[in-house]
Structure formats: structure tokens, C-alpha cells
Specification:
Layout (H helix, E strand, L loop, with lengths): L1 E8 L9 E8 L4 E6 L5 H8 L7 E6 L4 E4 L14 H11 L6 H9 L15 H13 L5 E5 L7 H18 L2 E5 L3 H7 L2 E6 L2 E6 H6 L1 H5 L5
Parallel strand pairs: 3-7, 3-8, 5-6, 6-7
Antiparallel strand pairs: 1-2, 1-4, 8-9
Helix pairs in contact: 3-4, 4-5
Bound molecules: adenosine-5'-triphosphate (ATP).
């Protein structure tokens, strides 16, 4: 699905690189979590995958055009802003030039949010808002779903629902998932493996490697 070879990148095009000689192959149906300290280049890597940035050297090959992106959720939607969930998603449908309007309700059904179609986004909880953003990303029927910190600012019960949803899209629909994670437990429970960024370098870690070397590789005392 994704093949990254010898990728190096810096914003000013010259060394030192933020990402240096990164190699990563992600297979169809994989669920991979990208971990790393603040400023380690996780978002930069995602922007490169989304072709918002160009590598300084190396290549990124992605074997699908059908990519759904769920950006980091931000607080503070204006609950009085007079746009319903349905209208918001329908607008996105039009932007994607999808003729079949039933896709809006189908995408809400996929995330179990059909009952909220007439609600205002600002009136939903953080977890519910995140489900709507996942529904939006699902509208293009993606084969690859890229998420930026899917559980940031979301209460524990809703986090559980969000990860159940992402995991079921991965397992039941075969969607490849790439998620930037700060939620270590979610990364350990849901991912097939972890890609860890540190000092510009990338390291693939199996879940077992990660658990065994946790203290050393992540620099945390405990989960
Ligand atoms: N547009 C930009 N121009 C110049 N430097 C940038 C730009 N965006 C990010 N950087 C720098 O690139 C480095 C990597 O940033 P990036 O946002 O990719 O890290 P991150 O791992 O996603 O961090 P965080 O966990 O804090 O979101 C940082 O040093 C950051 O300051």
C-alpha cells in the first residue's frame, strides 16, 4: 500500500534533515501507529504521505488514490453556527464530486451517528465530533485512512468507541490505517506494529519489541 524508500526531508531543503533516510513498507490492511516525541517529524511524515510536501530525496509510493484523512480535532466549534452534520457532510460530498447523495447517510451509519444528522457539530461531544470526522473521511470510500492523534481531548469511554470504530474499519473493511499516536495504550492494543521516529530516524517495532524495550526506546518510566 505504501512504500517509503530512503526518504529525507527538511523544510529549508538542506541538512540537517527532520526525517533522514526513512524506509517503511506498509502492506494493505496493516494498522500502524506512528510514535515519537514532540517535534520528531510525525506530522511532517503525514504531510509527505498526503503529498502536501515533497521529499528532498527518496521516494514515497502509494498504491491507491483513495485516501481518507482525519486531522487533529480542535476544540471550540461554534455550536450556534447554523450548519447541521448532514449539511456539512453533504458539502464535502459535493467537494468530492460524488453524485450519489445517499453516501452521506451511509457514512453516518458506518460510524453509528445517523441519529445526529440534524445536530449542530458544536453541540456534539469530542468523541461524537471525532466520529463525524471519521465519517467525512469515509465518504471517498478510502482504502487508506490516515489519522492525526485520533483520541486527543476525548474522554476515556469515547476513546474506547473511537478505537473500536477505527479497528473495525481496519479489520472488517480491510482499510489500511496509519495513525499518529500519543495514546500509547491505544497504539499497543490496536496496531499491528509501531513506527517510531527519533532524531530524524525511523524504527519499526513489533508490539512485543515495543513492550520489551519500552523504557529504553520511548524514554518513559511506565505506561
Ligand atoms: N512549516 C514548517 N516550517 C519549518 N519548520 C517546520 C514546519 N512545520 C514543522 N516544522 C518543524 O519540523 C519539526 C517536526 O515537526 P512536526 O510537526 O512534524 O513534529 P511532530 O512529531 O508532529 O510534533 P508534535 O508531536 O508536537 O505534533 C519541528 O522541529 C518543527 O518545528
Amino acid at each position: 500500500m505504501i512504500n517509503i524508500k530512503n526518504l529525507s526531508f527538511s523544510y529549508n531543503k538542506i541538512p540537517p534533515y527532520i526525517l533522514e533516510n526513512i524506509n517503511l513498507e506498509i502492506k494493505k490492511g496493516d494498522y500502524v501507529s506512528i510514535l515519537g516525541d514532540n517535534g520528531s517529524g510525525k506530522s511532517t511524515l503525514i504531510k509527505l504521505l498526503l503529498k502536501l510536501l515533497k521529499p528532498c530525496s527518496g521516494t514515497i509510493q502509494i498504491n491507491t488514490q483513495k485516501i481518507g484523512y482525519v486531522p487533529q480535532r480542535f476544540e471550540g466549534f461554534n455550536s450556534q453556527f447554523p450548519v447541521t452534520i448532514y449539511e456539512m457532510l453533504n458539502c464535502h460530498r459535493k467537494a468530492l464530486k460524488i453524485k450519489d447523495s445517499s453516501i452521506v447517510l451511509n457514512s453516518l451509519l458506518k460510524v453509528d451517528m445517523l441519529n445526529y444528522k440534524n445536530s449542530l457539530i458544536g453541540n456534539l461531544s469530542g468523541g461524537q465530533q471525532q466520529k463525524i470526522f471519521i465519517a467525512r473521511a469515509m465518504m471517498g470510500n478510502p482504502e487508506l485512512l490516515i489519522l492525526d492523534e485520533p483520541s486527543t481531548g476525548i474522554d476515556v469511554q469515547s476513546q474506547y468507541e473511537i478505537y473500536s470504530l477505527i479497528k473495525s474499519l481496519n479489520t472488517n473493511l480491510g482499510i489500511t490505517v496509519v495513525a499518529i499516536e500519543h495514546n500509547l495504550n491505544a497504539a499497543l492494543v490496536n496496531s499491528d506494529y509501531i513506527f517510531k521516529l527519533k532524531n530524524g530516524k525511523g524504527q519499526i517495532l513489533s508490539i512485543n519489541d515495543y513492550k520489551e524495550n519500552f523504557q529504553e526506546v520511548m524514554g518513559y518510566a511506565s505506561i
